[in-house]
Amino acid sequence: MAVNATEEKAKRELHSRGYLLKQRAFLKVYLITLAEKKRLYGLQFLDEIRENFRSYGYRPVHSEIYKALHELVDEGILKRIKIKKEGAKFQEVVIYQIHNMDEVRRYKKLLLVELERCRGLLDRALRDNF
Amino acid sequence: MAVNATEEKAKRELHSRGYLLKQRAFLKVYLITLAEKKRLYGLQFLDEIRENFRSYGYRPVHSEIYKALHELVDEGILKRIKIKKEGAKFQEVVIYQIHNMDEVRRYKKLLLVELERCRGLLDRALRDNF
DNA sequence: AGATGAACATGATGTTCATCA
DNA sequence: TGATGAACATCATGTTCATCT
């Protein structure tokens, strides 16, 4: 009895009191999906996401991206790979790749439910107020 | 040149950096719509909204409702009416009613656009990641 | 006890600074 | 200068306290 504490904690990472999804979690699904498709480093993830949402006016900041990436690594979902970047200035860069596919599936499943819940909330608001 | 400062300010009341709608604004549309339909006081608004979103797991807190109501009054959208509540304990209660219909329309128009933008964001995320 | 409201605390996010290559 | 990251600041929201009937 008493609702599973682990579950409660998981919820709090998604939202507060059941309102809309936190930005951090929203970004994390995108980072996972992008990591599945391409080999990118921090600021490239940022660019991709900004570009994707340009028309929506959504423009996340770089520190949020880094924090999200760090969390994904801590949770064993992604892994870090340091790479010497090509070009005139041999700069070191941190690439993120999928670490554990089971964890990826678990997280995405969670987010699918959550995104649909949020969409339901907005649909409801649109119906109720307009 | 330089985007209208008033407009910028209005945006910041809706969201931060273009991410999803803030709870405060979300609640405000509901409070307006409810005030159009019924004569309610603070905690009754809260109950109605909680009941409406029970199945979504969304459960706002009382202080947010009061803050939202106060803002709506400050913005000239709602007006306060003090009423002696019936019953054994003649308690005073604050009813909220529509104050300015033009302001109501203006705010709702703004929120319609915003809610649709947010829904677009979520739809996009669902398509991009699943 | 129910209602209103303010004060205060926390936590998510944004801004700025530091370091490295 | 671009990239990474941490430190720090701010602000939205949640928790707690005070007051009144």
How far is the first residue's CA from the last residue's CA of chain A? Answer: 41 Å
Tell me the greatest interface. A-B, 37 and 37 residues
| H/E topology pattern of chain A | HHEHHEEH
By DSSP, the count of extended strands of chain A is 3
Mean pLDDT of chain A: 91
* Percent range for β-strand residues of chain A: 5-15%
Q: How helical, in percent, are the residues of chain A?
A: 55-70%
Radius of gyration of chain A: 17 Å
> Unreliable segments of chain A (pLDDT under 50, ≥5 consecutive)?
none
Strand order of the largest sheet of chain A: 1-3-2
Helical run tally of chain A:
5
The computed structural class of chain A is alpha+beta
**Quaternary state, please?**
homodimer
Shape type of chain A: globular
What is the makeup of the main sheet of chain A? 3 strands, antiparallel
Describe the structure.
2 copies of one chain form a homodimer. The first copy, chain A, is an alpha+beta fold. Helix content of chain A is 60%, strand content 12%. Chain A is built from 5 helices and 3 strands, in the order ααβααββα. Chain A has helices at 5-14, 23-37, 42-52, 62-74, 101-129; strands at residues 40-41, 78-84, 92-98. A 3-stranded antiparallel beta sheet of chain A has the order 1-3-2. In chain A, helix 3 (42-52) packs across helix 4. The longest helix of chain A has 29 residues, at 101-129. Chain A is globular and about 55 Å long. Chain A binds chain B through residues 17-21, 23, 26, 29-30, 32-33, 52-53, 56-61, 108, 111-112, 115-126, 128-130, and chain B through 17-21, 23, 26, 29-30, 32-33, 52-53, 56-61, 108, 111-112, 115-126, 128-130.
